[in-house]
Amino acid sequence: MLNDLIEKRKKVLAESEQHKDRRNELNALASKNARERNALNAQTREFVEEAQQHKEQRDQINEEVQALKDQRNEYNDKANVLFEEIEAFKREHGNLRNRGIKELQKQIEHLEFKQQTEVYSTDKERELIEKIKHLKASVKDQEAELEQNKEMRTKLAEAREHRRQASEIHKGVTEKAEVAQQHHDLMVESYRKADKSREEADAAHQRFVEAQEAADEEHKQFIACQKELRDYDKVISGLRKKTRKTRVTKEQKAVRKEAERIFEQFRGGEKLTTDDLLLLQRAKLI
Fold first, then answer.
1. Checking CA distances to 19, which of 55, 86, 195, 205 falls within 20 to 30 Å?
2. CB proximity list for 180: less than 8 A, separation 6 or greater
3. Which residue windows are coiled coil (predicted)?
4. How far is CA 226 from the centre of its chain?
5. Global pTM value
6. What pLDDT is recorded for position 88?
7. Per-residue exposure over 21-40, b if at least 16 CB sit within 10 Å of its own CB, e if not
8. Which residues fall within 8 angstroms of residue 170, CB to CB, at 6 or more apart?
């Protein structure tokens, strides 16, 4: 029975070591996943901060763009008022067959914008250029006619200056709007990266939780094995004590029996050796 218990204890001890090793492996894996999660969370925060910086820059530039647009519109409004006065002067003087300078100028701007932003065949583009050239010539002719009148010449110069200033400001609007769009695109990209790293951090956290829970389960199994080993140790220790006590009792009986035999021989007149005397003393017969 004792040998069976010892063998069972060996198996439990081996199982305990397996649970301990597996627990340590899982704890190391959990720590690795925790480090990855923390690094990804830190990266996410960096991307979000970058996105916020780009958003702030975009918003600030958009405010500047709006301010420039207000200035541009103000100059255009002033120019429109003067061109309306010029058109009114032309109508009063019977020049109704010609389109107004304001209308011609708008048409020129529209065609120039199309030329810059759309793709045309060589023939179509040449045709468009000729049309713009013709319209500009019409504007020049009408302006030349108007410049013969001193008052209209002054208004026309003012209107041109307002248009020029509006055009210069519009260039600034376009440039700043492009920069604002760049910051907007960078903001969107930073938020996209933040979302990606946040998803990876969540996945790493899930792996951390799973590894930690598995490690906790292995630890519970290890503790259970340790308790079972202590129980085996108590039983084995008790059996060993009992076995030793039984063995001592048997030895004592054997010594007593041998001592009684020697004592009877002594009483019969036989001489005792030193070992015989020691044995009799051990058996407490002398």
1. 205
2. 57, 58, 61, 62, 65
3. 125-169
4. 42
5. 0.58
6. 82
7. ebbeebbebbeebbebbeeb
8. 72
- The pair of structure tokens assigned to 168 is 């210069």
Model confidence pLDDT, tens digit, residues 146-163: 666 677 778 888 988 998
In angstroms, rounded to a whole number, what is the distance separating the alpha carbons of residues 105 and 149? 21
Check pLDDT > 50 for residue 97.
no
DSSP collapsed to 3 states, the chain: CHHHHHHHHHHHHHHHHHHHHHHHHHHHHHHHHHHHHHHHHHHHHHHHHHHHHHHHHHHHHHHHHHHHHHHHHHHHHHHHHHHHHHHHHHHHCCCCCCCCHHHHHHHHHHHHHHHHHCCCCHHHHHHHHHHHHHHHHHHHHHHHHHCCCHHHHHHHHHHHHHHHHHHHHHHHHHHHHHHHHHHHHHHHHHHHHHHHHHHHHHHHHHHHHHHHHHHHHHHHHHHHHHHHHHHHHHHHHHHHHHHHHHHHHHHHHHHHHHHHHHHHHHHCCCCCCHHHHHHHHHCCCC
Compute the distance between CA of residue 36 and CA of residue 17 in angstroms, rounded to an integer: 29
* Least confident segment among 76-80, 120-124, 208-212, 223-227: 120-124
Tokens of 228: 């079972």
Beta carbons of 115 and 156 less than 8 angstroms apart: no
Q: Do 36 and 204 meet the contact criterion of CB atoms below 8 Å apart?
A: yes
